[in-house]
Amino acid sequence: PTDDEWALTRRAALYKLERRTFIPLQEIIYQLLGAGTGPGRGQRQEEEERFERLRALVAAQPQSFLEIQPSHQSPSEWKSAIALFDSMDNYSLPSEKAAVLVEVARCIYETHGREHGADAVGGSGASPQKQPTPMAAADFLPIFIFVLARCHLRSVIVTRHLVSETMITALMIGETGYYATMLEAAIGYIAAFDGAAKAVGRSSGSGSTATSSF
């Protein structure tokens, strides 16, 4: 077998292991993460309700408030990516939710390329091709925050814990790990939102984002 075939086999085995370990413990895990009953449920519920209020405030802001550059703002307001985020509730395994997270990110890039590509004529006889304006990580995060704020996930906080804390470590590599970090950063921004300052990262020049206590 080639290296790619071994990698696919290993990943399939890890997914199977996750399914066998997570499903039997799913109810307990959700209770521990705040989706069930038990000690501390009231406090967790208050924290989540506070977060959802802040998320609604962020969702009410235009793209420009989050310092999404005009060259990156979406005329469709990233509806395709938001719809993908909404579908995350249809999955239970952490790896499945993480896979949706990666698809959301790819959809953002695809939407950007489709909506902001510039016609560029190639060599002799070449037909015009769409050349999207490059999007750096600093450009991506505000868009991701916008999408997260406007999606309809039942519990962003529980989703964050499932992806970041219960997923098999070996699966948290590459794109999955990167966008899980983006999710953490987006939640941190929303949790620290005060409705006044634009604090996605560029305003202070530090490039940092707020951290979340959730």
Automatic annotation (TrEMBL):
Domain spans labelled VPS9: 44-199
Pfam families: VPS9
Organism superkingdom: Eukaryota
Gene Ontology, cellular component aspect: cytosol; endocytic vesicle
UniProt GO molecular function: guanyl-nucleotide exchange factor activity; small GTPase binding
Gene Ontology biological process terms, A to Z: vesicle-mediated transport
Gene3D superfamilies named in the record: VPS9 domain (1.20.1050.80)
PROSITE patterns membership: VPS9
PANTHER family found in the cross-reference section: GTPASE-ACTIVATING PROTEIN AND VPS9 DOMAIN-CONTAINING PROTEIN 1 (PTHR23101:SF25), RAB GDP/GTP EXCHANGE FACTOR (PTHR23101)
The protein, known as: VPS9 domain-containing protein
